[in-house]
Every structure is written in C-alpha cells, then in structure tokens.
Amino acid sequence: MARHSSSPGRTSGREPSLLPGPVGARDRIVTLLMLLSGVWLLVASWPLRYPFTDAAEEAQRNETGVGLVVAFIAGAGMMRRRGLLSDLVVLLLGLWLLVSPFVVDYGGEVTPRVAQTNEVVMGIVLIALSVVSMLLYFRSRRTGADEREGG
After folding, report:
1. What pLDDT digit, counting tens, does each position of 125-141 carry?
2. pTM of the model
3. Contacts (Cβ under 8 Å, ≥6 apart) of 16
4. Spans of biased composition, class Polar residues (predicted)?
5. CB count, 10 Å around CB of 133?
C-alpha cells in the first residue's frame, strides 16, 4: 500500500485562513477595512478640515503615524496572513488613538473637537477590527487543528 506525503484532511500545508470559505473571506474583509482605516487616518485632516493650529497639526501627526503603521500592516496582510502580533499592534494603536486626545498635551492648546472625535472613533474602529481579526485567527487555528485531527 502506497503512503501519501500529506496526512488526510490537510490541504497542501496552507493555513485555513487562506483557504476559500467563510473564515478566509471574513479575514480578507477585515484586512480591507483595516487598510481603509489606515488610509483614512492618513488623509482625514483634509476632508474634516482641521484648523491651522499647533494642536490640530500635532493631532494630524499622531493620526498620520498610526495610519502609516496600520496601512502597512494591512497591506502586508493582503499579501500574506497576518499573525497575532500584527493584530496586537493594531489593538494597541487603537487604544492609543482612543486615549491620546485626553492624555497628550497637543502644544498646550485645546485639541479641536473634530480631531478628538476622529481619533476616538478611529480608535474604537481599530480596536473592533483587531478583536475580530484575533477571533478569526483563533477560529482558523482551531478549525485547522480539527481538520488535522480528522474531525
């Protein structure tokens, strides 16, 4: 009897999240939403018309830095599956955006309301997306373990 090089139930070594199906499709949607969030953080000061104050410029720098990292992580996630570490980084960046308007002294001035609102809302969005992404990550690992065990 000939032996096969792969065990039953495995699909050529690919991760379950890269396979077609509901988990993989949801993961791609979350990645796309993360990418769009990162891009929004990069350009938000223009459509929201931040005022020309030191506080608004510093808020814009904060959002630009977070947006660059999130867009990079999501862009890399489009090429290959993000891991738990990248989701934790996005979670921490979301937490930072959520609290930064209240803990950072943007040049000694009151942070413009539009910038505060944008940072709080986008912080919540990034936290939610990273939590969903982590849940999908754990689900795909559990599903992959179940398939390898023959279940």
Report:
1. 999 999 999 998 888 88
2. 0.78
3. 23, 24, 140, 141, 143, 144, 147
4. 1-10
5. 26
